[in-house]
Amino acid sequence: MEPLRDSWGREIKSVRISVTDKCNFRCTYCMPAEGLEWLGRDEILSFEEITRLVRVLARLGVEEVRLTGGEPLVRRDLPVLVEMLAGVDGVDDLSLTTNGVLLDRFAEPLVEAGLKRLNVSLDSLNHVRFAEITRRDALDAVLRGLEEAERYPELRPIKVNCVAVKGFTETEVPALAELARRKPYVVRFIEFMPLDADEAWREDDVLTGGEIRAIIEDRYGPLEELPAKASSTARRFRFADGAGELGFVNPVSEPFCSTCDRIRLTADGQLRTCLFSRREWDLKQPLRDGASDDELVELLRFAVRHKELKHRINDPGFVRASRSMSQIGG
Ligand code: SAM
Ligand code: SF4
Questions:
Q1: Average pLDDT over residues 65-83
Q2: Statement: the pTM of the whole predicted model exceeds 0.85
Q3: Per-domain boundaries in the chain
Q4: How far apart (Å, rounded) are the C-alpha atoms in residues 85 and 73?
Q5: Most-buried pick from 65, 86, 104, 229 (CB within 10 A)?
């Protein structure tokens, strides 16, 4: 079947699926302290609906599926969904992004269900700072989750994601760099994007990958760049002595839109062709109205033809996305 291609010639290979908009953290760069309304139970796609869409997407050449949220592990029976998706022909990369707080309980059933890779968000190794940014005192639980995940060689590489916020992250960088050196984790710094529900993001709050690299190189000497896939969001580096790998995801200072091969599905079944989309394509209603696979294919092709050329964070008059990060699925 003709692959899924946008109007700029980019082939879609990857889908990020949000399984819930709920979360047990309230990270300052993502959610408000309180007052976000949750989607109703019936509004959220069932596991069968998600699996059907993934099957259709896989026929169109989508190979990579990442589950996210909100916090995906608060969705009941998530390993059941993982098992259903692991069984879809053509899906050869099935991964999960989590805050890690429930991972010590779920690592084993997830691996048994067929999960291949894991990203765990972790912004600080200091208890006070961790609680400041997540608004939860849960660092020990996340570290326990990581330790548990490490027991399963099937889950490699384990990536640790840190959102870099100016005035906060600078002091956390040395301990996170050390974590990359002493553990089998790829520690990745992600530039803060204007997707926070509080709408507090300012350009000046972005601590760039370049600035973090300078902090690290000051201490350890020059990092060595490693090859990365063309569609990769991260630039990869290792320490010169070979111990440990770091990644820099620099959507603000070095946008990678020209090689973007991703689409997103929100928990309520809306297709988004960019994190910063202002427009969504409803897949839930057609699914529930009995659309055939061919009709879904047509809808997907139509939506993807409208994929944005690029985000416009750095343009004057930038308009924020129509939803914030936890509602989209990062
Ligand atoms: N709750 C899970 C977690 O935190 O890993 C999955 C969902 S979370 C929205 C996905 C990723 O988006 C996390 O790595 C998080 O740190 C990142 N993120 C959230 N808000 C962000 C923002 N404003 N800018 C950049 N990354 C952000
Ligand atoms: Fe929750 Fe993840 Fe957003 Fe933090 S980044 S509030 S853990 S969804």
A1: 98
A2: yes
A3: 14-328
A4: 16
A5: 65
CA of 206 to the centre of ligand 1 (A): 15
* H or E element in which residue 49 lies: helix 47-59
Measured CA to CA in angstroms, residue 150 lies from 97, 207, 241 at distances of 15, 29, 23
CA–CA gap between residue 83 and residue 114 (Å, rounded): 6
**Residue 330 pLDDT > 90:** no
Contact 260, 250 (CB under 8 A): no
Q: What is the pLDDT of residue 101?
A: 98
Which structure tokens are listed for 216?
Answer: 């690290």
Q: What is the pLDDT of residue 74?
A: 97
As a CATH number, domain 14-328 is 3.20.20.70
Q: Cβ atoms within 10 A of the Cβ of 203, count?
A: 12
Check if the beta carbon of residue 224 is closer than 8 Å to that of residue 238: yes
Whose tokens are 């990857």? That residue is: 14
- Of 124, 131, 220, nearest to 179 (Cα)? 124
CA of 2 to the centre of ligand 1 (A): 33
Pocket, ligand 2, Cβ cutoff 6 A: 23, 25-27, 30-31, 69-71, 99, 121, 325-326
Distance CA 68, CA 17 (A): 6
Residue 73: which residues within 8 A CB-CB, separation 6 or more? 98, 101, 102, 103, 106
Report the nearest atom of ligand 2 relative to the CA of 70.
Answer: 8
User: What are the pLDDT digits (tens) for 247-303?
Assistant: 999 999 999 899 999 999 999 999 999 999 989 999 999 999 999 999 999 999 999
Separation between Cα atoms, residue 170 and residue 243, nearest integer Å: 22
pLDDT at 287: 98
